[in-house]
Design goal:
The complex is a heterotrimer of chains A (545), B (425) and C (360).
Chain A (H helix, E strand, L loop, with lengths): L1 H5 L2 H9 L4 H4 L4 H11 L11 H13 L5 H9 L5 H11 L2 H15 L6 H12 L4 H9 L13 H7 L9 H13 L19 H11 L2 E3 L8 E3 L6 E4 L6 E4 L20 E3 L10 E2 L3 H9 L5 H16 L19 H13 L4 H10 L27 E2 L2 H12 L19 H15 L14 H9 L1 H6 L7 H7 L3 H13 L5 H13 L4 H13 L6 E2 L1
Antiparallel strand pairs in A: 1-2, 3-4, 5-6, 7-8
Helix pairs in contact in A: 4-16, 5-7, 6-23, 7-17, 8-9, 10-14, 12-13, 15-16, 15-17, 18-19, 22-23, 22-25, 23-24, 23-25
Chain B lengths: L15 H9 L6 E4 L4 H5 L3 E7 L23 E3 L6 E3 L3 H4 L5 E7 L6 H10 L12 H9 L9 E5 L4 E3 L12 E5 L15 H19 L5 H18 L11 H7 L3 H14 L4 E6 L8 H25 L6 E6 L3 E2 L11 E2 L3 E7 L6 E3 L1 E2 L6 E2 L5 H11 L8 E4 L2 E4 L14
Parallel strand pairs in B: 2-9, 2-10, 5-14, 6-8, 6-9
Antiparallel strand pairs in B: 1-17, 3-4, 5-13, 7-8, 10-13, 11-12, 15-16, 17-18
Helix pairs in contact in B: 8-9, 9-10
Chain C lengths: L3 H8 L2 E8 L3 E6 L5 E6 L4 E5 L7 E5 L6 E7 L4 E6 L4 E5 L9 E3 L7 E6 L5 E6 L4 E5 L5 E5 L6 E6 L5 E6 L3 E6 L4 E7 L4 E4 L2 E4 L3 E4 L5 E11 L4 E10 L5 E6 L7 E8 L3 E7 L5 E7 L7 E4 L5 E4 L5 E5 L25 E7 L7
Antiparallel strand pairs in C: 1-30, 2-3, 3-4, 4-5, 6-7, 7-8, 8-9, 10-11, 11-12, 12-13, 14-15, 15-16, 16-17, 18-19, 20-21, 21-22, 22-23, 24-25, 25-26, 26-27, 28-29, 29-30
Classes of the chains: A mainly alpha (545), B alpha/beta (425), C mainly beta (360).
């Protein structure tokens, strides 16, 4: 199996034996191991640590999904404690913002903007509120249980992909591909009709073994929540390579795994719950291929599963995958830091797929806390060296919550816990605004959000959308209102930059502002609004750096 | 993108080494063109008007009539301004512009379904290399650039909804997607809020640019550059608000182009070309006449005829035709035989496209079909041939130019096809 | 209303045979004498069959038309046949001759497609209509144009003389029906059958595809569809019936589903029902009989794409113009040996026997 070849032999042994986590972490905390392994391959001087402001904004965006309010920033900057960064990380991970951030993040990652569904969003939110382990989450998604109200929203992962769009056929190959990409880090697209031509590791049977499972599924129309059913699977899927035309067949199997035997039942004995034609209810077969593959995909015994989530969490925090692109794990596209990836994969398996725990370790590392400024002289270090922090695009949701925070919108005080779809007064309007942000900033459906991809649409939205502009009009207690109460130009500049960019302005920036205010004293409120707009529209605001 | 219909493995001939090298080095997406476009290309900005007749116009009721034959249908053929070339009687106005046109009547393409056909034709059916190729509009936007107009290089005037259609760009990236004017209307949020005066707008944007310049110091650059680009384009669009104000169009133009959807959109396309947009696509939908093909074409084709003849006449009169390549094409033609619903079905086997302007000959018809119109007589041209032809007409040599996608070199047109030399001026 | 099964027993036809027309036919009809079946084809030929017995032997065709022979009309006196084509030609024949020659021909009766043709009850006038949006009246004896009725804003698809011979109705693509005074040559009034029309994207869809008066002239029927979409036109077949005196629509009879599309042809049976044929998606077609106030037809039989129905003057036979099954198809059609043959379609003419009144 090629994915075992990827492992260092000893690491493979540890995984196979399922040794406890202490063995890995007792000697050296994970965040220190990260720094050690990054330093070992830095091939040059690592950059300095980020200043407090830079770190504060980064950690907030990554762990709370928004920038800090000016007051929070001021308090953090003034705090003399030496362990304040670690404390902040813990505080953010405990705050109600964290599950919302994770909900937004996994919604965009797993659905790739195919749509919203309240059951799904609710499922994600509740899962992250309970810090549900990734393997449990993944199994619930891969084998959704319509009986369990608490988790059945997970079926939307399948439903959104099994739904027909226009006259197109149901995209079963696309679903097969996505399960490989998102849960195992392998894009098997080109292995549908033959072994992958350029990637030796991707075999046609890897594709077909999963494809057989999904081809057997359908959307249930007898219930009001997202749900999928399975037909009886009684025989293997036949396929042949378009090259050699030798007929082959496979039952369900996960990439690199053993074929799952299809059990035979006597006629009339195939169902756990037989179909009910009267009630229009599909049956529940005794043999569920979804159940079979879910158990095999989402487990620590499947190294690809651990490695994929380790790589994706690393990407979330560091802006690129150790294996990049994220879904091209194979021998010829090795990780930039093989040992580190293995360490992370083992660690997350050992900590029973506690994602919050792993994110904490990542955030504690010096690598994470490094400044994003390039060295003043010389060439920019290669991105994969992590000698300086990389820029990350803000998601539509991060932009939305950050914009509300920056503008000091009262409806969002304290921002962070509004649930999409919440009917409470004022929330509907906020949710409408959130949807407009998503429409303006999110990628089109099915396009992973990896790169910073600004668009004319988004620029027009920021420039002219009345609701966006409305956020920057003076309202009691909001940013522009606060600014207009301040007397001195220096105070105004400090408050503005701290509120929007989570840092104090440079002297040059202060001078600029003072000049602008002095030039148009009659239109102070308008000028303040426009300067706030300029910062909100700036590249600095829409990146996490 | 779905994998199966596009993946033609026997066509994978690219050397393994080249692709693997690319995969390992995939950093910072974005694709280059090699060689850098020659300076002279930029001097005289070439443009394209791409008229997409969605659903499939019948070649027999347009460019390749076969009156009085078994499958010829009810209509007659008429003479044109070019002796010896006849078109359907449903194209009387276009017939008078024939001396500007070049017809290719020997298209033989492959995909028979709309879902595959539309994308396949507009992507030029490149060999499958595991990437999503750009539509022609995105390709031209990439290869010819935006020119000096400050407007986005690829604008799509279409019925229905508008927006920013990224998917067209494929691996070139969203920047090369289409800015679509749904029902010819401007994009959302085009108009400056009344609360922001022109002076305020200039002020706030100057402040934004200053912030960006400061941020860009000691950063990798790309982000600020990309963000500035979209703001610049957005501001330029806001300045061209008048392009969308149909009340400013001359009544005579409106009458000549037609007050119907296609007429209005074609007139808008001319304005966009005059404003300097590199690639303008105009879509007309509803040509999939599996039923009632003849009454259908009898009222569809004259609307196309009116708008098409008017735009050709105007581009020629204004001298724009010298540097604007005009293409009118569908995803396929329609079956010779008439089904029981008096319709014609999908027919990629033998059909036609029309061209005019930049780089193509005037007043010719190349290739042809047999006397019943069922098969191509002589050499068949696939869409790859047309892509070669169009690129050549625009001064881009498809044998010398390739995309570079993360180190993976990709030809801009199917390398087994060639340009239709007979069409090229 | 009578029990449908009783009606079916009384009036329901029985299939006798199918007569093959080698090329697709716009419409095939019995002559007034009942001895011939005459069809107008997509190949510009007027085909004839001997209808005096059960054999239906094909007789030599009448040639000289171009495009499609889109309109046929007969008059008993002198065995007259008038034929119109899609290239604008109008001809007169004596259909019973062994080798008929045109009695006269008008080459540019219309600019392009003549959609329909009707002869006045006294046989003296012809009315034609076409894609040039005009209705024209001709001297049936000479082919000379008498006058022109302009005013339709869309292609005129159907034309019919009132039984009194003084009035003419014409219907267009937009579902507008005009009542003309034949003697004065002017428009009297307009009927609204716009439920037969849809403006969809760039296309004007539907229109008055068939038209007939009942024998008393009290009722005018306009057939077509209630279009849902252009392109591959879909919509429920529809007959809109007007009270000729008031000009009000009294019935909108729907026949079938969206894929059944056009009510292509029909006639009023004096016994109180309508006999109609429909043609929709390739393969979809029906011969139907229904009372005006009934919800369902009392008789219905499926035949692929029925474009015309013609009653034998004896009332004992029907001829239904259909299209062969599997008439549609995409992609490259090749002969088994790989040669690039390309099959066309044809028209089975389905002959039905009707119960004799004595049986009732």
């Amino acid at each position: 199996m090629w994915w075992h070849l990827l492992l260092a032999p000893c690491a493979a042994a540890i995984l196979a034996l399922g040794l406890p986590a202490e063995r890995l972490s007792a000697a050296e905390p994970l965040h220190q191991a990260i720094d050690r392994l990054i330093a070992a391959q830095a091939a040059g001087e690592v950059g300095p640590l980020a200043g407090d402001a830079e770190f504060l904004r980064r950690a907030y965006l990554d762990l709370a999904g928004k920038i800090p309010a000016a007051d929070e920033a001021r308090a953090f900057l003034a705090d003399p404690a030496t362990d304040k960064r670690a404390k902040l990380i813990d505080r953010l991970l405990e705050s109600p913002d964290f599950p919302r951030r994770m909900q937004d993040l996994f919604h965009a990652m797993l659905l790739e903007r195919r749509g919203d569904d309240p059951h799904w969003l609710d499922y994600l939110r509740r899962s992250f509120e309970a810090n549900k382990p990734w393997d449990v989450l993944a199994r619930e998604i891969l084998d959704p249980d319509p009986q369990d109200e608490a988790v059945r929203g997970a079926a939307y992962f399948y439903v959104s992909r099994l739904d027909k769009v226009g006259q197109q056929d149901t995209d079963y190959p696309g679903l097969t591909r996505d399960v490989g990409r998102l849960f195992l880090g392998v894009d098997l697209q080109c292995a549908q009709c033959h072994n992958h031509l350029f990637i030796d590791d991707y075999k046609q049977q890897d594709f077909q073994g999963l494809y057989a499972v999904f081809l057997n599924t359908f959307i249930r129309r007898d219930v009001k929540f997202p749900a999928v059913g399975e037909n009886l699977l009684t025989k293997k899927t036949e396929f042949m390579s378009v090259f050699d035309k030798v007929p082959l067949a496979t039952g369900p199997r996960i990439p690199g795994g053993a074929e799952i035997e299809i059990p035979a039942f006597a006629a009339g004995e195939e169902y756990r719950v037989p179909p009910d034609k009267q009630a229009n209810q599909p049956g529940e077969p005794k043999f569920s291929p979804l159940e079979a593959i879910a158990a095999r995909v989402a487990t620590a015994e499947n190294a690809a599963f651990s490695r994929n989530i380790a790589n994706r969490l690393w990407f979330v925090m560091f802006g690129r995958g150790l294996v990049h692109p994220l879904d091209l794990f194979h021998r010829e596209n090795p990780p930039s830091h093989p040992e580190l990836l293995e360490l992370l994969a083992q660690d997350i398996a050992a900590r029973k797929f506690d994602m919050r725990g792993m994110l904490r370790e990542l955030a504690l590392s010096e690598t994470y806390q490094r400044s994003g400024l390039l060295p003043a002289a010389g060439e920019a270090p290669p991105p994969a060296s992590y000698r300086v922090a990389l820029e990350k695009p803000l998601s539509a949701e991060q932009l939305f919550w950050s914009m509300l925070t920056a503008a000091g919108t009262p409806a969002a005080a304290p921002p962070g816990n509004e649930q999409p779809g919440d009917e409470k007064a004022g929330k509907t309007e906020l949710d409408e605004l959130r949807k407009r942000f998503v429409a303006a900033f999110a990628n089109p459906p099915k396009e992973p959000e990896i790169e910073f991809s600004p668009s004319v649409k988004a620029a027009l939205f920021v420039m002219n959308d009345p609701r966006v502009l409305g956020l920057l009009e003076a309202r009691p207690g909001n940013l522009v209102d606060r600014l207009s109460e301040l007397a001195g130009p220096r105070e105004v500049a400090d408050e503005l930059y701290l509120s929007v960019l989570t840092r104090l302005p440079t002297d040059e920036e202060r001078a600029d502002m003072a000049a602008a205010l002095a030039e148009r004293p009659d239109r102070r409120a308008a000028v303040l609004g426009q300067m706030a707009w300029a910062l909100v529209a700036s590249t600095e605001f829409c990146l996490n750096h | 993108m779905k994998s199966n219909p596009l993946c033609k493995p026997w066509e994978h001939r690219l050397s393994r080494r080249r692709l693997l090298g690319a995969g390992a080095a995939a950093i910072g997406l974005g694709s280059l063109v090699r060689p850098a476009m020659a300076e002279e290309l930029k001097k005289r900005q070439k443009q394209v008007l791409f008229i997409w007749i969605d659903g499939g116009i019948s070649q027999l009721e347009s460019w390749d009539p076969k009156p009085g034959t078994q499958f010829g249908g009810p209509f007659r053929a008429i003479s044109t301004s070019v002796p010896g070339i006849q078109v359907s009687e449903l194209l009387p106005k276009t017939a008078r512009q024939m001396h500007h046109l070049a017809l290719v009547r020997s298209l033989c393409t492959k995909d028979n379904s709309h879902s595959a056909g539309v994308a396949r034709i507009q992507r030029g059916d490149p060999k499958n290399r595991g990437v999503t190729y750009p539509f022609f509009g995105s390709a031209v936007a990439k290869l010819l650039g935006a020119g000096e107009s400050g407007l986005p290089p690829y604008v799509w005037v279409k019925p229905g909804s508008g927006g920013f259609i990224y998917a067209d760009a494929g691996f070139l990236g969203p920047k090369y997607g289409a800015l679509a004017f749904g029902d010819g209307k401007p994009p959302e949020n085009l108009l400056r809020s009344p609360a922001v005066s022109a002076e305020d707008d200039a002020f706030r944007n100057e402040f934004r640019r200053r912030a960006d310049r400061r941020y860009a110091q000691r950063r990798r650059g790309g982000a600020v550059e990309a963000n500035s680009f979209v703001y610049d384009v957005a501001q330029e669009l806001m300045k061209r608000e008048a392009l969308f104000d149909e009340s400013q169009y001359s009544p005579r133009d409106v009458e000549r182009y037609g007050s119907h959807e296609l007429g209005r959109h074609m007139l808008k396309a001319r304005k966009l070309l005059e404003a300097g947009v590199t690639f303008v696509k105009v879509n007309t939908y509803g040509w999939d006449t599996h039923g009632d093909n003849f009454v259908g074409h009898a009222n569809l084709v004259p609307k196309f005829d009116q708008a098409f003849a008017a735009v050709i006449e105007d581009l020629a009169a204004g001298g724009l035709l010298d540097h604007v390549l005009v293409i009118a094409i569908s995803e396929f033609g329609r079956t010779p035989r008439v089904n029981g619903h008096v319709g014609r079905d999908h027919w990629p086997e033998a059909w036609s496209a029309a061209m005019a302007g930049c780089g193509v000959k005037k007043g010719i018809a190349v290739g042809g079909t047999n006397d019943k119109g069922t098969w191509v007589a002589g050499e068949e041209f696939d869409i790859g041939h047309m892509f070669h032809t169009w690129f050549r007409a625009l001064g881009v040599d498809p044998r010398q130019t390739e995309y570079e996608n993360n180190g993976q070199p990709l030809p801009i047109a199917h390398e087994d096809c060639r340009a239709v030399e007979e069409v090229l001026a | 209303m009578t029990d449908p099964s009783e009606l079916a027993k009384l009036y329901g036809p029985k299939e006798l045979k199918a007569v093959k027309a080698e090329q697709q036919q716009c419409a095939v009809r019995f002559t007034p004498c009942g001895k011939f079946l005459v069809g107008g084809g997509y190949d510009g030929l007027v085909r004839r069959w001997d209808a005096s017995g059960d054999e239906f032997a094909e007789l030599p065709p009448l040639s000289g038309h171009g495009g499609w022979v889109s309109g046929l009309a007969f008059h008993a006196e002198g065995s007259r046949l008038y034929s119109a084509d899609s290239w604008g030609r109008l001809r007169a024949w004596s259909y019973a001759d062994a080798a008929p020659q045109p009695l006269w021909e008008t080459a540019d009766a219309h600019n392009g497609w003549i959609h329909a043709l009707a002869v006045s009850p006294d046989g003296k006038l012809l009315a034609t209509c076409g894609m040039d949006r005009l209705v024209r009246i001709w001297d049936a004896a000479t082919g000379g144009k008498l006058f022109e009725l302009a005013g339709h804003a869309f292609d005129v698809l159907a034309v019919s003389f009132h039984p009194d011979g003084k009035s003419l109705a014409s219907g267009d693509l937009a579902g507008i029906v005009k009542h003309w005074d034949v003697a004065a040559g002017n428009q009297v009034r307009e009927f609204d059958a716009r439920q037969l029309y849809l403006s969809n994207r760039l296309q004007d869809v539907g229109g008055v595809r068939s038209m007939a008066f009942d024998e008393t002239g009290k009722m005018l029927g306009c057939g077509g569809a209630r279009p849902k979409v252009g392109g591959n036109v879909q919509g429920v077949p529809l007959a809109v019936l007007f009270d000729w005196t008031t000009g009000m629509a009294t019935h909108a009879l729907e026949f079938g589903k969206d894929s059944d599309v056009y009510l292509c042809d029909f006639y009023f049976d004096a016994r109180g029902f309508i006999v109609a044929v429909t043609s929709g998606n390739p393969g979809a077609g029906k011969l139907l009989m229904q009372e005006f106030d009934a919800k369902e037809p009392f008789f219905s039989i499926a035949k692929p794409n029925c474009h015309a129905v013609s009653r034998h003057p004896s009332g004992l036979r029907l001829a239904v113009t259909t299209v062969n099954a599997n008439s549609n198809g995409n992609g490259r059609l090749k002969a088994a040996d790989g040669a690039e043959e390309y099959p066309g379609n044809w028209s089975p003419i389905v002959i039905f026997d009707m119960p004799a009144p004595a049986d009732a």
